[in-house]
Design brief:
mainly alpha, 4 helices, rod-shaped
Length: 152
């Protein structure tokens, strides 16, 4: 029975030491490289484990925890939020420019498309009012107030 306990203890120390070497960051090992420590552990299980715990293991720390790249939710990602704010501002600016362009085009149509006598709905110099049938000639600026083709 004591032989079995010694064999189990040696195996436990060997496995724990090997796992500890594997989990330790390669920049934190002391003495020799991480790969060399693994070779020493496999070739000399008991002596390699003892040397690892005495010489090679980083001081004052447990085995380095594995760092896994975690994905973050979009509402927790500062880059996403920054880009979202920029897109929102760009969209607002595009909407504002579109509205201003539409207003400018409406003003241009109002100025360029209105009859020579004034705004729609008011009395015309030729005596016609809103609702009266206009001839095509009365809307051209080249015609006089009476609808003739004389140029002023």
């Amino acid at each position: 029975m004591p032989r079995v306990l010694v064999a189990v203890a040696v195996l436990a120390i060997f496995v724990y030491g090997l796992v500890d070497v594997i989990r330790t960051d390669k920049h934190l090992t002391r003495g020799i490289s991480k790969t060399a420590w693994i070779v020493v552990m496999v070739v000399l299980p008991v002596v390699g484990a003892a040397l690892w715990f005495i010489i090679g293991r980083p001081r004052g720390s447990r085995p380095a925890p594995q760092s896994y790249a975690r994905t973050t939710a979009p509402d927790d990602d500062p880059d996403f939020l920054r880009n979202l704010e920029i897109r929102r501002r760009n969209q607002a600016e595009a909407d504002r420019l579109k509205k201003l362009k539409a207003e400018l085009q409406a003003e241009e149509r109002k100025v360029n498309g209105s009859p020579a006598g004034g705004a729609e709905g008011k009395g015309k110099p030729n005596g016609t009012h809103r609702g009266d049938k206009h001839t095509e000639e009365s809307h051209h600026p080249e015609t006089d107030a009476h609808g003739t083709d004389e140029v002023k």
